[in-house]
Amino acid sequence: MAIAPALTGQPVGHRERGLLRTLISRANIAWVIGSLILLSAGTVGVIIQVVPSLRHLYLNQDLEATLKPPLSPNHLLGTDNLGRDLGWQLIAGLGTSLAIGIGVALLSVVLGLIVGIFGGFFGRAADAVANVVVDVTWAFPAILLAVVLAGWIGPSLTTVILALALTNWAGFARIVRGEVLSLRERDFVNAARVLGVPKVLISVRHLASNLVPVTIVLTVYFIATSIIGEAGLTFLGLGVQPPMPSLGETLSTGREYISESWWPVILPGVLLVIIVLFLNGLGDHLRGQLDPRGRVQRR
Amino acid sequence: MHQPDDEGRCTVTGIVEMNNVTKVYPGRSGATAVDGISCTVRQGETLGIVGESGSGKTTVARMLLRLTQPTSGRIMINGTDIWQARRGERKKIPRVIQAVFQDPFASLNPRMQVGACICEGSNRLFGRKQAAADLDRLLDLVGLPQRYRGYYPHELSGGQRQRVAIARAIAMRPAVLVADEPVSALDVSMQGQVLNLLIDLREELQLTCVFISHDLGIVRQFCERVFVMERGKVVEEGNPAQIFSSAKHEYTKSLLAAIPRIPA
Amino acid sequence: MTSDLLPDVPASSPDTAVSALEISSLQVSLQGRQASTSLVTDVSLAVAPGEIVGLVGESGSGKSLTALACMGLLPRGVVIAAGDVRLSGVSLVGMERKKLRALRGSAISMIFQDPLTSLDPCARIGSQIVETILAHRDVTAAEARKDAVELLDRVGIPRATERMRAYPHEFSGGMRQRVMIAAALVLRPRVLIADEPTTALDVTTQAGIVELVLELRRELGMAVVWISHDLGLIGQLADRVAVMYAGEVVEMAGMRDLFVTPRHPYTHGLIDSARRGEYGELFGFIRGNVAEPGHWPAGCRFAPRCERVVAGCEQHPELRPLDQASVRCINPMTRDGAQ
Q1: How far apart are CA C167 and CA C124, in angstroms?
Q2: Residues 7 to 46 of A: which have CB under 8 A from any C CB?
Q3: Do residue A299 and residue C288 have CB atoms under 8 angstroms apart?
Q4: Would you say residue A127 has pLDDT above 50?
Q5: Cβ–Cβ of B190/C259 closer than 8 Å?
Q6: Cβ of residue B124 closer than 8 Å to a chain A Cβ
Q7: For chain A, how many structural domains are there in total?
Q8: What is the structure's pLDDT at C16?
């Protein structure tokens, strides 16, 4: 039995464009293209490391063609001190960087979300515990952890990922906690509690989905910082070991021969700068896009 | 705790009892938000709680809904002390008392469709199948077209969103409905729609209502009994018509005097 | 200086020939990438010196935008597409920004719903007021300070001299609003636009602010446009009322007249919705939803919600005089009540 006649007529707003459609739209075309280029290059970089028959592209040493400058025949960007094609080295290194970057970012974000929500939403005791953990981790420098891990399990891909992720997540946890503290006062969270929805479910359904924008933006930033972090650690010898290619490694080795050949140092450096600038810019841009577009406050 | 009849009406005595309930916020100032409120609400009755900002009326609502813990005092809903209840009893509380909040924009998750919003609680309580079956009836009950179930909150007007919030609350077939300023954020021409809906529903579903507002005019028309709160204390209580004609407390009188009236 | 830009009309003598504020056929639009959306259409309003005109409407009515247009404070992307706004006969539309800035605050001023956003939270209130004075008047800092203290005292801030050094957040909502009024009136503007200044305040505080504005209006001979969704409040203050719906004025009448004999069905519905009765009565309302800009029907914008719709309502009605009022309706309600 209809008590209240349908007085309401048409819905008033327009249908919402999904998150994906918002991100991949004409306004963002430059960023989308840039991201695709970066992803493709990185994927290629990973593929040539993983597929055995392609490894020669960056591993092939040609001791008669060492330190050839860019624009040499067969070697667009020149060769390094072992005659390996620099172009392919860079692409492979980019693959490593991106893979590590994404891996670290994802790990940090997941950890950060869990601890941040735990501290922000599950009561004062939980918050105290979370805060202690975050504070201790926050202060811990990645390099120190890398040194310890390198000493313990030896420098490797795993070392890098662990060192970076385990120090990175705390910053994100802090941000998440802050967001959660304000989100939990929102009436839809209160309503869910009154409806009897358990807190864990509220965290996933209501909190997390509203944390997606900040998560996306920070993930992009984290990828950038992890790429630098990895390059740095490898440069210091604490990261991935040869023959695994790395921009940091190319840079590091290239130092010795800098008087004869600038390209093994400058080119990886420039590539790093471009990637990081791009990712930072992308992060800024996404932040602008995903911030709750000031909806008109309806009365 | 109780069983609904075949049409989902509540047959329990939804009694709400507050016994000297106090809420003091810890901290330097130790602000007393609520200073010893006691009352009994009979089944089917509508109690209004009126006050301005800082009066404590919202805190009372939050304590009734188990969102904010009282510093002292007891709150009994249908014979159960809701703050001392064991886990098993606690799980039954959402079945008895539900809420409609002030800001229709903020009380619905902007990323959940209307249908999902309404069924959020009833899914858990009655199972998905039953909840989905109820959804049709609920949309009718609150006067929303069926196709709205797939829309997102921001596509609806404020009044429509409040209807969704109401549907979500009654989906749980509660005995008690706490409405915290349910129409304050709506346009004047739509307030009546939602208020009349609440009037219809409380009769049809035999709801006990606790209606919180700063608007004495609305409270008078909607509630049988009213508490006037000032700075955490109940300064006056009684029948709204009586209070309007012969208020005893100074604060109530100043509230009444300040209401802008439509020139007749 | 204001005197260069506005004809010298002494503030205290209502010169009926020149309205303090005159809005003619104002149209405000949102400029989108492809097309522009009308937000306010064909709004005309004249306010005489010393008069209070109430502007009533709900969300989407365009009342705030109309006010912002008068002040030259429209947000980015929103422009005056047509029409004129005259301050004591001087047109503000298309005026040089520098001149407009000089007029703002000194000849025409505005107060808003949330004082926190219009007062600089990082500056002491005394210095904000003093700065305003010094920017527009050729006086010494000491004189400006004295003026400021007097004004704060006048608006009811206790211990004004001390409170000059306080920050906005140290005041309660009602007090902040009084500070904002002081800041808005320090230069004795001819026109004050008040956009829902008491909506966020308690009922008891609200009464004090209303009284203050009424007194100041008398003292300064100011013209006031008071914007509100609250009919009861308008009934306390206004001499004349303009009712807006969906970006246009649908009725304009003297205050008493409007309430006793509402002509436009929307006005009638609004009054009905605001009326409160006894326990057990149903509440008045208008069916349907408030119309959104961009989705207005071509004909009468209120028609989808109107109970008095007739054959001619698909044509967009004009604002026509009816008795002592103006109505935008081809089937208005008349004195005898019904059809």
Answers
A1: 5
A2: 7-10, 12-13
A3: no
A4: yes
A5: no
A6: yes
A7: 1
A8: 54
User: ipTM score here?
Assistant: 0.86
Give the residues across from B34 on adjacent strands. Answer: B23
Residues of chain C contacting A296 with CB distance shorter than 8 Å: 59
Angle B201-B204-B208 from CA coordinates, rounded to 5°: 65
Q: What are the tens digits of pLDDT across the range C139-165?
A: 898 999 998 898 888 888 888 888 888
Please report whether residue B11 resides in a domain: no
Backbone angles phi, psi at A73, to 5 degrees: -60, 135
Confirm if B258 and C206 have CB atoms less than 8 A apart. Answer: yes
Give the structural domain span for A113. 28-57+70-290
Sign of the four-CA dihedral B163, B165, B171, B173: negative
The count of structural domains within chain B is: 1
Poorest-confidence range of C41-45, C175-179, C265-269? C175-179
Pairwise CB contact (< 8 Å): C59 & A298: yes
Average confidence score pLDDT of chain C: 87
Q: Decide if A225 is inside a domain.
A: yes
Q: Is there a domain that residue B5 lies in? A: no
Give the residue on B whose Cα is nearest the Cα of A5.
Answer: B143
Count the residues in chain C.
Answer: 339
**What residue spans define the domains of chain C?**
2-6+21-238, 265-327
**Chain C residues touching chain B at CB-CB below 8 Å:** 58-59, 202-204, 206-207, 229-233, 235-236, 255-256, 259-260, 269-271, 273-287, 289-290
Closest chain A CA to residue B169: A195
- Among chain B, residues having any CB pair with chain C shorter than 8 Å are 52-53, 157-160, 187-193, 195-196, 199, 214, 217-218, 220-224, 240-241, 254-255, 257-264
The residue in chain B having the minimum alpha-carbon distance to the alpha carbon of residue C276 is: B217
For residue C15, pLDDT over 60 is answered with no
Q: What is the pLDDT of residues C217-261, one digit of tens each?
A: 898 889 999 999 988 899 888 999 999 999 999 999 999 999 999
CATH number of domain containing B27: 3.40.50.300
Full-model pTM: 0.82
- The verdict on a CB contact (< 8 Å) between A210 and B109 is yes
CB C267 within 8 A of CB B262: no
In a domain, A100, yes or no: yes
Tokens 């939990």 sit on residue: A184
Tokens representing B162?
């409040």
CATH of domain C2-6+21-238: 3.40.50.300
